[in-house]
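Working notes for the structural subgroup meeting. M.R. asked for a predicted model of this chain before we commit to crystallization trials. I am recording the input and output together here so anyone reviewing the notebook later can reproduce the run.

Input as submitted:
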Amino acid sequence: MSTTNGTTKITGALDEGHIFEWYPLDLIRDHEQQKQHEHNDQLQNGSDGTTHKPDRFALVVLNQPLTHLGLVKRLWKNASIRVAADGGANCLYDVAGKNGDHEFDDLTAIIGDLDSLTTETRTYFTTHSSSPTASPTAIIHEPSQYSTDFAKSVDYLRGPSCSKPDAPPPNIVAIGGLGGRVDQGLSQLHHLYLFQSSPTYADGRMYLFSGESLTFLLKSGTHRIRVREPGQVNQPEKDVFAKWVGILPVKEPSRIWTKGLEWDVEDWPTEFGGQVSTSNHVLPETEVVEVRTTRDVLFTIALRDV
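Returned structure, recorded in token form:
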């Protein structure tokens, strides 16, 4: 594990507080396999041996070139609703529609100030559809310069147009947010904090995929993150995630406890300008990584090719 000041362990105690279960494998499980699991209604992969039903999620495509198309296609198929943040629609068109591929035609809306949306892309998505029964892509112009296109997309997905009566808000998965300009990348990380102010994720959870990693926010409490399917330890050819993990206190200092990593820590102070945990490793025998934190931190894990 890379740190600023070493990896000294400091023994301490912390009340577990809220306990959160995470199933990021649900997001990118093979679509046909996902449908089979959903037919059975529940998945047998709770960290405590219990079952759970996958949460629905909305996909936001941000304005960054789309690489790792296997991952993009998997997320697209598993999402319940799909929107593009302004120029994100150009990225979809460039890798598919422009080449006669209708994989990404089923786009619900393009949202933002539309300063990046090309005429060619706009025409394509408002006149093409992969299904004769699908509605044309909606073009939603939000001109405010005091909000990003990403934020406008989140507001839309959490608003009345996409909400279901008596149903919790959908989780939101964003793709393409990292890998370009540094200020834009930091803005996407900022959004993970901005739109998850509830200590219990009452407004839904958010995930940020880049081509090489998945990042999400851990609120104060204990988190159990399933990183492998049950019974698939020591089978690296079946892994979705690679071994590298980081736990980043972007907003404020925290103290963390971990279990299931090569360099576990206890009551470990972490802050920017001090000790920061990067390049830790998930152990080959670990199915569930456990993290306790006193303050909100970002958890990031590398992806294998999907």
